[in-house]
Every structure is written in structure tokens, then in C-alpha cells.
Amino acid sequence: MSPEWASRALDDLQVRRMLVLTSFHPSGQRALAGLAFTGLRFGELVGLRWEDLDGR
Question: Kind and range of the H or E element at 47?
């Protein structure tokens, strides 16, 4: 597979390392988890409003 088509997603180990490194700051850790587990970009995450979430 050529580099331009390689996945840019984080693997499980990378996500775990990021969460460990941010454990000192719970809000930062939650934001990182939100990014890692939803695929949102940072601007999308900080722009979310309660009305944007589907409670179903």
C-alpha cells in the first residue's frame, strides 16, 4: 500500500498512550477520548452543542 493511502487512524496502543499521558488533566483526557473514539476533528468536537446529539 502506498503511503498516501495508508490509514492515519491511531491504533489501540497509541490511544492508550495518549490517555495515559493526559491522565493529569481529566477534561483534556475526555476530549482526547472523544476525538479518538468518534473520529471527530477538534473543531467539530469543540463546536458540539447538546442539540447536536441524538439521545436515541
Answer: none
